[in-house]
Write the structure tokens for this entry.
Amino acid sequence: MSARAAILRHIEAIADEQTRRLPTLSDDLELRDSGLDSLCFAILVARLEDDLAVDPFLDADDGAFPETLGEFIAFYDRVLAVA
Amino acid sequence: MTGSSPLPEAHLLAPNLSARIRQALDQRPSAPPPVLDDGARVIQFDALVGGTWIAAPREAVAGRHLLIVTDRPLSAALALCSLDGVAARMVICPPDLNMAQLPDVIAAAGIDAIVHDSGQTGAFPVAVPAYAIDAGTKAGRPAYEAAGVATQWALFTSGTTGAPKIAVHDLAGLTDAIQIDFSVTAPTVWATFYDVRRFGGLQMLLRALTGGHSMMMTSPPEPMDDFIARLAPCGLTHLAGTPSHWRSALRRKAHEVLRPRYVRLSGEIADQSVLDSLARAFPGAAVAHAYASTEAGVGFEVNDGLAGFPADYLTRRGPVTLQVRDGSLRLRSSRAAHLYLGGDAGAVAGADGFVDSGDLIEQRGDRLYFVGRASGVINVGGLKVHPEEIEAVINQCPAVQISLVKSRRSPITGALVAADVVLADPDVGAEETLAIRLSILNACREALTAYKVPTTIRFVDDLPITASGKLERRHA
């Protein structure tokens, strides 16, 4: 199961809560162009942890953050595949 | 360590506790005889001061440093009445003291003997003599002759900010904030949800004792429901507790059986929602909230029914001078503790005589509000968040009984704000819960900037309360 649906759902909800306008959510969307700031991403990661029971960033060794939405989804999918 | 900390000379002349109780009895000769009542025992004040309650010869306690370890709060009260003005130092152990810490406490406080009511004598070090506080309703022996000393009263801090310390007061400082009007003849019966072995509860005990008023006490593990039921028929007039105690009491419908004319809160921030709830629950009662701490003593009272306190308190003259520095409330006060026991505990006050409370203050208009504790700040990506500020907003929601805001770790911002919420009605359905969640979030978004809005809200059945009656906060 891909994390895609959960991620997109939460991004839309958070953008709505924080009154941000989202561009089209395509895989090549650069996260820095998403209109979401670090607080929004922090909330996103927290909610995904509640939903999916994983936080790939807490376990990541190098602390690298994905640059595009597609990479972000793949990041979760990789962790979910081994979880 | 004995005698390492002489108290001011003037205090040598102050009457001791039993003399103060006798004065009160003399002032109200026609009133019904006041009693201490913990449900198991009822002790009249004249019996309280009519003899000693300690099974020890005078030479074993006079001028000594004594550790008071009791299972029942009432036993501690008996010991205090017997020993003030006789012992050099009384160290009052709180209900939640870990017995494994006894040897450290004994060393830090230079204890000569233990006074107890307990079956737990096995936990006491054999090298330290132990004397029992008598059971029964009458003191067994003639009262000790006073030793002409201002006994040190040593109390444990609540340890909100780390390991508990032992703060040394005396009776004059502890009772300085108490104003007694002996011309008031209306019957007065005090009760408190606090434990009298801690600062807040001891204040109430001293208020009752020195005012000649009966006091109803609770003894762990008595459930609050049982205590409230016991208070109902006794003509209770004055009742004190923390905001957490009060929220709990209102949830147990205390207002349906109790009619106090004075309701008092202290020990935690009294936000507007709890003050309003109490005003609604007890129409006609005076609702007062007080600011006090084990370190600084009683700071001030607020009687206008509003949260926070008037900004002009900062310019008031009197026994307590208030100051705000770096957002933190500081107090210089004759009621402050004189010192901490134990070598590395540091000083209570700074070089300028001010005690830094660690309670953070914010001015809005001509009023000052408590926003939280310096140690409780949640750091969201470098931005400071006071949990109490958010709780005050959540608690205003009608469906909410109480809330606890805490830190949740985040790999991106370091921390995020999370809230645990207890609903006023625990039996609401799933759909209604969803609506309540939305209304809480909307209230927060309206009143708070984005990074203070809880990112997650969890509904819980109850929130843990510490032995000192405060919401338990675990700082992440």
In short: Chain A is about 55% helix and 0% strand.
